[in-house]
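Lab notebook, bench 4. The sequencing result for the construct came back, and we need a structural model before the next group meeting so we can plan mutations. Quick request posted to the team channel:

Model the 3D structure of this chain.
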Amino acid sequence: MSGRLIVIGLGPGEAIYLTAQALEALACADWFYGYGPYVDRVVAVDDPRRVVSDNREEGARAREALTLAARGECVAMLSGGDPGVFAMASAVCEQIERGPGAWRELSLEIVPGVSAMLAAAAACGAPLGHDFAAISLSDNLKPWPLIERRLLACAGAGLVMAFYNPISKARPWQLGVALEKLREVLSPDTLVIFARAAGRADEQITTTTLDQARADQADMATLVIIGSEETRRVERPGQSSLIYTPRFAPGCDPEAAGSQG
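Done. Here's the predicted structure in token form:
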């Protein structure tokens, strides 16, 4: 079958985050599917090859793109950040599994991109320097009690957490409840990072502590990082502070071990 579907990660925002592989894939596509703001980044508004849909229509979008690819077209499925992180790569794979056998014969390529959590982490240092978990706070596709269990399990295991989809007009309460749950098990001085529009020109990074963190510091464009007990702030005169999590677990500092020998 000659059809081809390419799921392309566009990165978090600015064109500088587009990889060479993504640019090459965009150049060979006949059609461009995606959520409107993502398509707008790389395809002109008046381009007849663009097919936009709402951000809650991932399954339908994937089915339509697969159907077109099965007709022999080269179709680009555009995704913000990395397509495999709470995004379109999984939606496409789901539809291939559920759909007609012809979809399994298609050429499928998934082009990775810079995820929002990586752009956010780089903007303030290296808070993801040790083990971490990425969690979506949206309960559209999973029940809230499951989200709570995962939050507490990650906190109990000492993992840094990156929150996607922390809050929206339709879901105004989840982040506040998540913060309250974490306050039950984490130290009040645990570092919290609010990274709004990470990787875009209007990027805004705010660092606070768990006892001071408020849900209204975030919106749907915000990536929230909850540090572990090991996450540290390094003050620098005349410059912004560095937030990082050591690469090693407590008691395993390779330099300290060497100095003791």
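The first strand starts at residue 4 and ends at 9.
Will bring this to the meeting.
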